[in-house]
Amino acid sequence: MSHSEELPTVVDNSETQGIEIPEVLPMLPVRDVVVFPFMILPLFVGREKSVAAVEEALQGNRMLYLATQKEVATEDPGPDEIYEMGTVGMIMRMLKLPDGRIKILVQGLSRARRVEILSTDPCFRVRVDAVPEPGAAEPDYEAEALMRSVREKLEEIVNMGKGISTEIMMILENVEDPGRLADIVAANVNLKVADAIQVLEAVDPKERITRVHSLLERELQVLMVQAKIKSAAKEEMNKSQREYFLRQQLKAIQEELGITDERGEEIENLRQKIDKAKMPKEARAEAERELKRLKDMPPSSAEAAVIRTYIEWLTEMPWRKRTRDNIDIPRAQKILDEDHYDLEKVKERILEHLAVKKLKPDTKGPILCFVGPPGVGKTSLGQSIARAMGRKFVRISLGGVKDEAEIRGHRRTYVGAMPGRIVQGIRKAGSRNPVFMLDEVDKIGQDFRGDPASALLEVLDPAQNATFEDHYLNVAFDLSEVMFICTANLTDPIPPALLDRMEVIRLSGYTREEKLEIARRHLIPRQTAEHGLGEGLFEISTEALGVLIDQYTREAGLRNLEREIANLCRKVARRVAEGQNRKHRITRQNLHRFLGPPRFLPEAEVEEDLVGVATGLAWTQAGGDILHIEVTTMKGPSKLILTGQLGDVMKESAQAALSYVRSKAADLGVPEDFFEQREVHIHVPAGAIPKDGPSAGVTMAVALLSIMTGRPVDHTLGMTGEITLRGRVLPVGGIKEKCLAAMRAGLKAVILPERNGKDLDDLPPKVRRALEFHLVKTMDEVIRLALKPAPAAHASDAQGVAAS
Fold first, then answer.
1. Deepest in the core among 14, 304, 734, 762, taking most CB within 10 A?
2. Which CATH number fits domain 2-131: 1.10.287.110, 1.20.140.10, 2.30.130.40, 3.40.50.1820?
3. Is residue 314 helix, strand or coil?
4. pLDDT score recorded for residue 303
5. What is the pLDDT of residues 769-796, one digit of tens each?
6. Residue 554 C-alpha from the chain's centroid
7. Which residues contact 700 (CB under 8 A, 6 or more apart)?
8. Around 458, how many Cα atoms within 13 Å sit in the side-chain half-sphere?
9. Active site residues
10. Distances (CA, A) of 634 to 195, 613, 670
11. Residue 9: its pLDDT value, please?
12. Where residue 134 falls among pLDDT bands split at 50, 70, 90?
């Protein structure tokens, strides 16, 4: 490969006009330069094929075909990578260098076009077709004008700093041939290879000078723009230098007078903070505008402090700071398993979310919303997600927030204005992509100060939050990289528009077995460590732990359980501190000595089949319970009495059950006037506890049918479901919690609506093995399962006994 490191020299063509150019010549590919006829320039030759071409030329008539390769970086160009148009040149001198390369001095003789490649080894040998220079033409005014314009533009280019020697300029003044003038200019202006090849390929002198004129025009425009840029940069530098010298002089004068320029230092510090903050263009413009206002404002002004605080908020926001995601799915699963027992479906959904984030980091995933009873681990799940992703974790509680400004911030016109909690959380995290937990999103209030839930619509919408604008900052901040997680106890209080933006993941209460395992793995080790109880000082038996769960706490979560364990640890810690340095074992027998009598006793079990008493299943925040619904009838005016602190929906269910039962009286052989002279009283025990919901409709209907027919109800059977006036059984919620309560109460079978059959998949295997499940569509099926045959006495006698 050959290249030139010096500018070409122009020679007279009189000596070379009579030289005959052979048809076959060795070809020397060159790069970075296009050789023109009658130009002399040095070339350095280093590649084996190129050296072989030079040696073959020197052994013959010293002529070479010089062709430029298309790509400069190509080390071994093929025929298609070399331009077809080139120049036949003669080697005038040759010098071997110490590094093995050869330096040759070549002179261009004539344009030539490559016709055929005859061989490629040891060098390229090609057949060429020489392109003779056209003879002198008649005077052409257009060509003359182009030549003058080329000379003028070249002078302008030289005046703007382009390096062209004086000798070349003098030669150009005496050249009268337009083609020759075009070649000399093209060889000395350092054109791009593609542009120079266009000039070389132009055989007609007039076309050639026209192309050179266009290229000079473009070069002149580029030089003018470059000069303008340099001038503007120089002016800016001069201005900065002037300001620097003036500031230094001012500083020296103030030091001589003993004046300390604290204000100047403050302004300079703020300016440096603005430079380091790497704000977006809009935010930086706002910060510099406020800094200019602060600079022109008296230091004692009240507004100066407001502006100073505002600029500090802008500079401390993590505009470009982010933590790098380190998503390793097996590691994330290990972290979730370490921090939380069970919750398999929730963990699976979280791992799916992380997997998508790993495969497509810029994806705008859904906003996760964990919904479940208090104490089931919603907040700690968010912390585990942040730990698994390697992100910062921020949590804000929205419980009781009623002011929209808590989310969007106050405008700076108000005294004591501050940014909203979202911006404060981002600043606290110090990165623009933390895991941001919005706790208790269902507890947001609303009053005359606005609706905070509506303000959250933009925050939690992936399509909008890239341009979230806090009222205080008044510039857009990109929240699209923040991973928002919400928590709530119930979905009903959440506005539909806000709920629509979130993917709800439900966390049900823990079963007794799950609580035992969590207490063993997490709660007891944590509390013994926090109370300074080393190994061998505290132990609690599994039976005692079960009693603690059943009779001292009643909740779906674990908070009260952990409090009671902490209570036990404190009492043991006191004994150890008093000198009883031994193992203290908590058993079922001595548990009451530490915690007192049990606070919650299980519902009294029905030990036999009774008329008018049916066992219902209820959902509670403690995880589920059973209800023994009782019905009796008395002589008196026809009416329905409901007791047990029932809600409106439950009262309506009782009315619907009674209407259905009265409509079935004739089919069951009960006199039509049975209810006309009787009062019906339905009572749900635990009267101090409010109860509501439609799921007790089936149970109340069974109890009513039992009192009508005198047929006792199977006491080993629990039931739940909503009843319609036509006797259809509709699905209800809380199936898992209700079935767990049935198993704890020792029931053998459960009646469920048929459409709740899908919920059985969520039950632990132990529950599915312990209970027999009956899926029903209508009350007829319920009656066949729940009611046993009446005793030998007449049904009416049984009814009379029950009524008494």
1. 734
2. 2.30.130.40
3. helix
4. 84
5. 889 999 999 999 999 999 988 776 544 4
6. 39
7. 614, 616, 629, 631, 653, 654, 657, 658, 682, 723
8. 17
9. 695, 738
10. 112, 16, 16
11. 63
12. confident
